[in-house]
Structures are given as structure tokens and as C-alpha cells.
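Schema walk-through. Below, the input block comes first and the output block second. Nothing else is stored per chain. Lengths vary across the set, and this one has 197 residues.
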Amino acid sequence: MNTPELQQLKIAWLEARASGDTQAQFKLLNEHPAEQAALIDFIAAYHATGGDEPVDQHAPLLDISQRAMQRTLIRVFYAPVSVSNIAELRKNRQLSKVSVAQGLRLSVDVWNKFEAGAIELTSLTQRQLERLAQFFQVNIDEFSNLLTSSQPSISLNRRQTQEGAHKTQQGPQKQAFNEAIARSNMSKEDRQYWLSE
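--- output ---
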């Protein structure tokens, strides 16, 4: 437990370290046996994290760190907005279809099928749903509901007669996710990423 006394000992140790007074550092450890284990853990963590080594403020961030920072900023600064389907979710996150497809390792044609409501929810495995939901930082149930709400867009078959066109409206046929991947132009590695469990 980080008691006020332990906090004062940590500050005293840091001051002794900064001034180069090793005797004061040892004295703190010897005079406070009850806090000795916690103080030793603090000293070990201090050295393990670089201690008093200068931090390069201009060092480039790793890609994974940049993505983590971006997700954190979105979670902290963007209040959740009510959306009713997958396309609105993407737009709410200010993402293009291409960036979503790249981020999810899908082709744009497969992502278009999600937005058009052509992918059957029941064809997605739990792991696939987790990956999709995690990308958008929503839970699986929210993503599933948005996918269900994404209705196929309706288009008229222009080859029909005018009377027939009013009676029959066509939209994209529902398709299993694995089938959409198999018919896409995705790379072999990206297909394996989605199809292997």
C-alpha cells in the first residue's frame, strides 16, 4: 500500500539519488525496515524504467504505440454518438472505407458488403465478431446490432418493364462472410487471418 510515509520515503530517496548521496539512500533503507520491501520494489522499478536517463522527446513512436494513442484519444475525447448502422459507425469514427478495409485486413468489396447489409450475422464466428468490434471500439453486441440494422440498399432492375420495376426491387443477396472472403481479391495472408481460428 502506498502510505503517506512511504511516499515521503520515495521522495527522500529520489532527492538523495539526485544529489548523489548514496549514504542517505542506504540510511533510508536501514532506518525503515517496515517499508523496506516496498522501497526496494520502487527502486527496482525506477532503474527498470530508465531511472534518470534522459528521455528523447523527439523519438518516433512505434506504429503500435501510435495506434494505441489514437484509440485512447478517441475513447477519451469523442463522446459516443448514437448510430444506427455500420456505415454510420464508420463515418462517426471519421474513417474512409479504404482505411477501414486496410485496418481490418479486408478488401473494400467485402467491407462494402458489410455496409450494404449483405453479410449474414450468423455466418460470423465469435473471434471474427471480436476483431470487428474491437476495431471500432464497441462491444460485440453493439456491432452485431449495427450489422443487423444495416439493411440491403434497394435498387431497381432497369431491364424490367416499368410495371415490373414497381413490383420487384432488388438489393444485394445475403452472403456468408467466408463466401464473401473467398470471392474477394484479398491476399492469401489476409484470407488466412480471417478464416483461421
